[in-house]
Amino acid sequence: MTCSPSRRAGLTFAIRDIDTFRGEALFWSAILVSNTLGTSLGDFLSDSSGLGYGGGVVLITALLALLLALKYVPAVPNVLLFWLAFVLTRPFGATAGDLLTKPTAKGGLDLGTVGSSAVLLTVLFGLMGWAHLQERRNNPAHHTPATA
């Protein structure tokens, strides 16, 4: 039987359970590395890979969808999927932001700061509304009005 890295280190990956300096150092080191790797990957995909902003967004979206599918494969550890998705959200955000804001001559949509903020707020509120409706469908007893 093999022992996971978190067990060997004596640390947990549950954020609420990090209560030692060693645990904090591991957590923040992982955050720093993932942010750096993610930003570098986003810059590479947008500027150097030949994919451009749109192609970079499509590639990262496909990788995130693959990770979501792998969530249902028991042999793949959820901790690994979490950290891979965590790293991939950084280049996704940077590349999608560039796609929305950069001029069309550079392959962007030229929406500017206000336009891209409006698009992102619309997406955010749409997803929040969808999540709320899903929750109401799955837990109807919690959302029935109280009668006096």
TrEMBL record:
<dbReference type="Pfam" id="PF03988">
    <property type="entry name" value="DUF347"/>
</dbReference>
<protein>
    <submittedName>
        <fullName>Uncharacterized protein</fullName>
    </submittedName>
</protein>
<feature type="transmembrane region" description="Helical">
    <location>
        <begin position="75"/>
        <end position="93"/>
    </location>
</feature>
<feature type="transmembrane region" description="Helical">
    <location>
        <begin position="113"/>
        <end position="133"/>
    </location>
</feature>
<keyword id="KW-0472">Membrane</keyword>
<keyword id="KW-1133">Transmembrane helix</keyword>
<feature type="transmembrane region" description="Helical">
    <location>
        <begin position="25"/>
        <end position="45"/>
    </location>
</feature>
<dbReference type="InterPro" id="IPR007136">
    <property type="entry name" value="DUF347"/>
</dbReference>
<feature type="transmembrane region" description="Helical">
    <location>
        <begin position="51"/>
        <end position="70"/>
    </location>
</feature>
<keyword id="KW-0812">Transmembrane</keyword>
